């Protein structure tokens, strides 16, 4: 579990009424909600009532029944809610659900369904702390990759999950996957599109489905998990978590060009005519070439394959090289790869095919981008989807337990020093403390759960708040009393700070609006 929650499940509750987080579950279909029909398994409606309400881990019957305001298909609605018993982090997760109509087997998901998911998140963004998307596993890695590119300046967790067996089956992975997703979405401000499966939270655009039957269905071969369930707690790998560093709210791109892209897997004996036929498809704008090993195709610099690729690139088609291997990266190390590079092929480093296709579709749909700009962006990470500088080894040294506990003490005193610097308005000291490894202080909090942004918001120093936000600090963290930095800034009359927080996407939660002394326009 992350440092700021290191005592989360050992300390007694700080008051008798525990705070609640709000999570919206968006049901799109998949095995998790399937029941046997005349032609085999098919998705069934009413998941919250039939699968969650009867299970004590999803339904703490002691809470008041509450309808939550939500948006569905652009309309204001009220969704029934349930809440979990207290989590190890001393909160309840209150959740409501909207379901797509029709619910789909994910093999039928298309770009318009991705857009519907992205819009559902955007329209409900100010009403919930996090989002859980129920989705079939077949095309889950594609949807997770697509959503990661579609959402710019995401500040809240969007967690996709599903299961290999229906929740109604005797032996199923559904309860573990759903409960883990709900707890993470309602506890940690991990502002990424992520995929939770079999006790691990992965960056969505790094995943690929590796088993059609095992509960361990997904892998993220080139990127460590963002978090792991570890007994009662959850270990978040905070240094890996990406955070927006521009002061702007969430924006969503819903148009992806999936109809003018293709992918083709090279195999021994592949004919140049075959590749040429694909590259000459009418309106084809981009091809993902799945090559051998580090990015090789048969033939030399002037071989027939390299020639048809070169001529397609000259006609304006973008060709990107990704490896057929699940782990590792492509690089022009061998002569065949070097020839492709000289022909103008973009090297996709350690991109998965899913991320390569959706990134290409996303960039092709951006208005006003030239081919050169698209090519340049394809070769660099935009949402953590690729490792910029491939290293010979991707293993990370692990520190010993004593080193970890020493670090924790050092971190605690460093956070205290940061708190003092903020209180004294010493912007230079704040900057110094946050250099290098000090950036980890942005995910920490004091005994009352106040992050650096909470402290700076109350002190009212706009320069310090701006500095924190530009370093990736979240505006959505809540302290133990469930207050956001914006709530504290507004309450203490720090209007300039409140304004800046709003520019960075902060808003009052529904419950803060009800609790605070404002008019309904305050959020
Ligand atoms: N065919 C199912 C789907 O992708 C597989 C699953 O969810 N496990 O919808």
Structure description:
- α6 (304-315) links the parallel β18 (286-291) and β19 (318-323).
- The protein starts with 19 loop residues before the first strand and ends in an 8-residue tail after the last helix.
- α5 runs parallel beside α6 (304-315).
- The strands form five sheets. The chain has a ten-stranded mixed β-sheet, sandwiched between helices.
- It has 523 residues and is an alpha/beta fold.
- The protein is built from 16 helices and 20 strands.
- It is globular, with a radius of gyration of 24 Å.
- The relative contact order is 0.10.
- The protein has helices spanning 47-52, 111-124, 140-150, 174-187, 272-279, 304-315, 335-342, 353-365, 371-378, 401-423, 427-433, 452-459, 462-470, 485-491, 495-503, 510-515, and strands spanning 20-29, 34-37, 40-43, 67-72, 75-83, 92-104, 130-134, 151-152, 158-161, 193-197, 200-203, 208-209, 218-219, 227-230, 233-236, 251-252, 261-265, 286-291, 318-323, 346-347.
- The model is unreliable at 1-15 and 390-401 (pLDDT under 50).
- Residues 30-31, 105-107, 136-138, 162, 164 line the site of asparagine (ASN).
- Asparagine binds next to loops.
